């Protein structure tokens, strides 16, 4: 049964909630280089322990791709003190939940527990870092898991391959050019020593940030962190190659035939600045304005009004070195992907030529204010924001100030950034088509 708050009470609670968005945190380094961020919030008896490692698919050998994502799975296999299959049991038996994810630049592990199980979370993550078992049984098991994941999410999923196809076109030199899941052939041919070397290189305290957020006692927690993580040896300094891409100066055209679809799609992808750059924030506003959700300009025009598109979508890819803005659509009825592309180009031209209206500008600001509040509405969300802002944007306090960047972006700036990056000759055009039937 639905329950409704009286309006006055709702406004009061939301007002207090918005004020509470100031996130107070403390950060420091252990002698082994592990960066620690603590955010104490005793409002509810829950706590999140999270570790982000500065390793993603871009850190892989081009001949051995898929390792970062593979390790996301492998490091749940067990440790010197945790038997195979026990990790999830330990988490659930202590009333917790957890998961992990990998992207282009980082790998993230986290657990949320009742606050009286904080030590369990710290122990688990220290075990993952200090005593992982990189063994043949675990490697063989997880190879099968990753193979099945690729089949499910990419090979047999409608439109599942578009991310990989776009990346290989957007980048010719940079390691963003291959997908996060990598090559199954590379994983199949990798030796146990290859995996051990990857772990030795990247899973070291000086390549990680530990976040503890929620209900805890600060001094007691610092002591536990020192006890569990302090003895872990510092790793060798990681050498990262800075790879610069040449600008795209001529439209890159590609076609992909997907056996899992019946409706074609058009995708337009633009390479944009890394996520810490101011222009990347402006691109996020442009993406939201043009193509994010049913209130966006393109959706309302192409789906609601002209009814030439079944769907309009955007896929902003925020990353450390470069980001991407991807916009696309699926035609409906007798309409074509060319019709969709023409309409998208017309709306992009408008935003490059004219200032968006004051009304639309204020709607944008309101949406980003709401997104900012929602991102920090849970302890787990705060932990993730703290880790990413420190590691990928080099400014942990963006958890409090990032909204000020969006507030400072002007309508004129939106127009100029659209002119700068959203040019036809600076993009990839991917025609994503149903697989052609054999005439015979």
From TrEMBL:
It comes from the Bacteria. Gene3D superfamilies: Metalloenzyme, LuxS/M16 peptidase-like. InterPro entries: Metalloenz_LuxS/M16, Pept_M16_N, Peptidase_M16, Peptidase_M16_C. Residues 1-20 form the signal peptide. One of its GO terms (molecular function) is metal ion binding. Residues 190-367 form the Peptidase M16 C-terminal domain. Keywords: Hydrolase, Metalloprotease, Protease, Signal, Zinc. GO terms for biological process: proteolysis. Residues 36-176 form the Peptidase M16 N-terminal domain. Belongs to the peptidase M16 family. This is Insulinase family protein. It comes from Flagellimonas nanhaiensis. The lineage of its organism: Bacteria, Pseudomonadati, Bacteroidota, Flavobacteriia, Flavobacteriales.
